[in-house]
Amino acid sequence: MEVYIQMIGWHKLAIPSSLRLFVNGEFTLINCGENNQRFLNEHKMHIARIKNICFTKISPETIGGLIGLLLTIDNISDNAISIYGPKPIERIINNFTSSFAKIKNLKITIHEISDNNIFPIILKGNVIITPILLNKKNVITTNHETDTIQNSEQTVLDKRKKMNEVSNTHDNELNNLYKNKNGEIGEKKISKETNSNYLKKRKLNVPEIEHEETYESKTEIVNDNSWNGQIEKYKEDINRDSNKIDNTNNNIMNSTEIEKNCSMKQCIFYLIECPQTIGKFHVEKAQKLNIPPGKYYGMLKSGKIVTINNKIINPEDVCDKNIDGKKSLIIDLSDTEYIDYVIGEIKNKEHFYLNNLEYIFHLSDEKILSNKAYKDYFLKLKNIKNIKCNQSNSSLKICPFISSSSLTNILSKLMPNIFLKYKPDDPIYELSPKTLNNYSDEKFSNSFKNTNNDSNYILNVNFKNEKECKNADNSFMNENRIASFEENTNKNNNKKVINSNENKGEYTSYLSYNTLTKFVLHPFHKINICTDEMLTDLYPSTFNFSKISNFTHENDNLMKPIWDFNKKLNDNATMLPSFYFLGTGCSIPSAFRNVSGIILNIQKDFSIILDFGEGSLYQLYWISKSWIQFTESIKSIKVIFISHAHADHHVGIYYFLYIRKMIFPHLDPPLILIPKTLKNWMNLFNELFLDIEMRIIYNENDLEIKEIISEDNLLTLHLFKVNHIKESYGIKIEGKDIGSIVYSADTRPCDNVKKFAKDCNILIHEATFDDELLVEAINKKHSTIHEAMQISLDVNCKTLILTHFSQRYPKAPILNKSSSAEINEIMNKTIYSFDYMCIPLNLTKDLPACFNILLNLLEKLF
């Protein structure tokens, strides 16, 4: 049996800190932040084999990817999954699964860990995860009625023996363990269909929301504790006039809010313990004792005493001593106030925590890791490796999404000002709430002065090298970063495995490794840190660049429109307004395309989001030339439009709002236009994680909103219903600098799109399927490429931008050559969107010819 812990997430703006525990073919996730499912899918890491998800705390950083992951698993599997975490994990899951994220097949069991509901998690092979709860009272809770779990390792061994006697199957082991009222570990006899005591089945009591779609769901959400609170009924009338702005103000603290704040401070650290390695059985010793081969050999190997001819034979008579299993500790503190209590707890129970402890995984923020008391204690522990799993205070050193980055690298070589890619630049200040609160918006804004004097240009800070990036503003630099041990990841370095028996002793700094590093715990003789799969490249390349270079040189005449465009763009600089296309795929993220996400940059300080699927914030970070440009992009967002309640169009917006508040705690909230279906979820998210006065307008047909950009610049937003699901809307945006722009969102061809897009400057239309899949497009209420072009022809738009392609077309959509002269004409006005793409509006007439060449190039090369 193999047991290892693999590093998955390491950076708040890429994949927040998370781990994956592998035990005998099954996986347990520790936290599930944004981009988890995309990363696991890209690297073929078997998300259908995830059996458990354990949360260290409840935060957008830990739960941001949960919705997308559960929906994806639900589409490919009907297995069961168990979720463990502190309050209010049950309330959160109940909320989104009862509104917009319907689970059809997957059975979810929620284990909400609290003071009176703590129990060990037993995995295959008798690997035991012990949760230790830290609550607001600054007291570590492990069930104070008994020291059974923590104080004695022998309890664990006895339990394993007893379990092996009862059954060799994992299912029986898991179902038969519970704690009785006295806190003792015992057995309960229940069938797989029946749950009792802490596993109580009950119907969800959640406010009902009307949907066009109906789901025949066989899923049952099982709640494992006696928490009998119901999802609160929101005081606001759900039928309130949606034209009015929905203000949520939580300035007055009542008893419910105080209790909520206490529960949000809770966090859990996990102790993972492997089983013993059975000592070697010596046949020659057994023969000398006249033990007949067969069942007695097996009994002695399993640690049982046997009697032969009235002679008692102990296992140690024929077997070497068992080797105790290794342990790992996972610590993710939500506040510095817990540091003294965690250290005190470990000191008081050193044998339980530190005996055979191999690794400590530190998922906490920099403010925890740099705390003197914390560092002094953990870094002085001998023979224990302290792994730093949160590297959010540095720039990205690797790219987690190899395929999309490789494609962008090719496209950016051909059109560098259109296809943007990341330039390393350390965050200007620590990405943690308390540090950020020390800086007001005015102080932050002062650091941007003279960065770009022309407000008509996109902020484009081009540093010559990373050192110059880091010196952009030394006044905000964190000079006291923890020294980290960086493993040499040079490709020429052939040493990929670090043996655990080397360099034993006291470490003076945290150990830092890249994502996908494996920390092997079992079997004993294979314990090591394996970096064979570890990612090492910031700009990975999976394509043959020499082949591309040869093609472009041999077809110079074909490439001439692109070279001419690049020269024209360089001569005129990158002008505002422009589009950022962050995600151009549909449904679930793929290797080459993330889910929907578009930003319309109108002025330097005024931008609009048009849908924002999970991972869109990372996409924005990846196309930023500097940390300053990234934060300015966030600050410029004044309006957020969510077209409908499908998860691939809105799940990323919540993490965006969280990071936005973190960086700019005093910035006025943007205007948010969302379907009323999302009301309860948005309210809950604001209550738990933002606590700000929201500006929300619920979408409805023919809703018109006017926003003032400047004294002489008025922006008009006009919403209209489209033919997809209930509460699906498109939007028309009109302004002095942009003309008229129409975004269809997800829809079948419909009259409203034609009505509002008549004679528009730019039509952004979905083109999910190619023309051969018309029937599927009709069934799923999407459009084909040909249908989108026909609409463009009917409305006489100047430029058509196609997006929302099916993930079955990974690199480029399939284009069928039309015999219609009119369609061929519109193809010469069409831009095919890609992720990480910037489109200046004043150059949209020149881009279609370039994109036709790019599509032909990709088709020939790949």
UniProtKB/TrEMBL annotation:
It is an enzyme of class 3 (hydrolase). It comes from Plasmodium berghei (strain Anka). It catalyses: Endonucleolytic cleavage of RNA, removing extra 3' nucleotides from tRNA precursor, generating 3' termini of tRNAs. A 3'-hydroxy group is left at the tRNA terminus and a 5'-phosphoryl group is left at the trailer molecule. Keywords: Endonuclease, Hydrolase, Metal-binding, Nuclease, tRNA processing, Zinc. The lineage of its organism: Eukaryota, Sar, Alveolata, Apicomplexa, Aconoidasida. It comes from the Eukaryota. This is ribonuclease Z. Its cofactor is Zn(2+). CDD domains: RNaseZ_ELAC1_ELAC2-C-term-like_MBL-fold. InterPro entries: Metallo-B-lactamas, RibonucZ/Hydroxyglut_hydro, RNZ2-like.
